[in-house]
Amino acid sequence: MLGTLGQHSVMPRNTSENSMTAIVIVHSAAGFFIAADGKLTMDDKSRHKASLQNLAMETEEQQKIFQVASPRGTLAYAVRGTVRDPLGFDLMKITETQIKAISARRFDEMYPFLTSLGGRVNKEINEARRRGTLEPFSEESQKTRTGGWPIAYLHFCGYFKKEPCLAEIEFSHRRQVSQFYIHWPMLRATHFYGSEIVRQNMYGDETGTAHPDSRFAEFVKGVPPHLSFENAQQFTRGYIEACGSQLGLEVDKPFCKAIGEHIHMATITPSNGFAWAIEPLWKEIP
User: Fold this and answer.
1) Nearest residue to 269 (alpha-carbon basis) of 77, 106, 75
2) C-alpha span between 151 and 192 (Å, rounded)
3) What gap in Å lies between CA 84 and CA 8, rounded to an integer?
4) What is the CATH architecture of 3-278?
5) Distance (Å, whole) CA 36 – CA 200
6) Is 9 within 8 Å of 186 (Cβ atoms)?
7) 78-108 in b/e burial notation, b at 16+ Cβ within 10 A?
8) Phi then psi for 126, rounded to 5 degrees?
9) Which of 129, 205, 232, 285 is 20 to 30 A from 119, comparing alpha carbons?
């Protein structure tokens, strides 16, 4: 653990490596801060057989953070994993459509909302495989905590009925059939989704086995005792930029080669709701 600062814990062990993107979520007494890189690329296997039209799907300006506004609260969510397939699958559009489909329902708790959304998106994923608009799922990456092979994740943070919420929907498969699971990460903590190797090179680990690499010092923006959104912006940018740097490629090329470019960030607070700290260069249009 990097340390407990006031009521905020920095927990680097909460790094997840199941997809080639970088997302950081910070929760403090002030609210939530969420940041993501803007790079969207195909994996090597898909790129090898992709057409020029398919390659045009790759971008350095992808929006990965989105807002959910409902009568019960204000949330943000971020997407990582198998997001798009040249055959027609688009997880971001599917998620947006399903959120709109259930937005009129007045959920009394966050869990039923996530269960309803997860079930709807999961059905779309399996139907996309059946229709052939989504290629067979990979079994080459590290398995998830539930024992399946990762497909994608939706990360939620914000306020539901004025209460802080931090949740994750995991989509993973066994024998090419998608299933979904809901996880509840720790509040008042920082959660990294990206390269664990880069994170260790920046901060070491709680056991003292891995030590910081001085070459990454320029990216280390420590969380001060009184966490502000300005501090969080510097802190999250440091990690994402490190993942997308030449040093990141050097120490963890398999993950970092698909991370980088425009970083966008948002805040979610009880008083002001959702607000962009740095807007995406190109927003998804409903």
Assistant:
1) 75
2) 18
3) 35
4) 4-Layer Sandwich (3.60)
5) 19
6) yes
7) bbbbbbbbbeebbbbebbbebbeeeeeeebe
8) -65, -35
9) 285
> What's this model's pTM, rounded to 2 decimal places?
0.87
**Tokens 């090597």 sit at which residue?**
44
Q: What is the pLDDT of residue 267?
A: 95
Tens-place pLDDT, residues 187-215: 988 899 999 999 999 988 776 677 899 99
Angle (CA) 112 99 31, round 5°: 75
d(C-alpha 102, C-alpha 83), whole Å: 21
For the cut 90, the answer to whether the pLDDT of residue 97 exceeds it is yes
User: Among the listed ranges 98-107, 137-146, 206-215, 229-238, which one has the minimum average pLDDT value?
Assistant: 206-215
Cα-to-chain-centroid distance, residue 262: 15
What is d(CA 147, CA 26) in angstroms, rounded to the nearest whole number? Answer: 27
Q: Where are the domains of the chain?
A: 3-278
Q: What are the tens digits of pLDDT across the range 12-54? A: 434 444 457 899 999 988 899 999 998 877 555 554 444 444 4
Give me the amino acid identity at 147. G
Task: Specify whether the backbone of 45 is left (phi greater than 0), alpha (psi in -120 to 50) or beta.
Answer: alpha
In Å, how far are 55, 194, 204, 228, 236 from 223, measured between CA atoms? 39, 19, 15, 9, 10
Residue 51's Cβ-count burial label (10 Å; 0-12, 13-18, 19+) is exposed
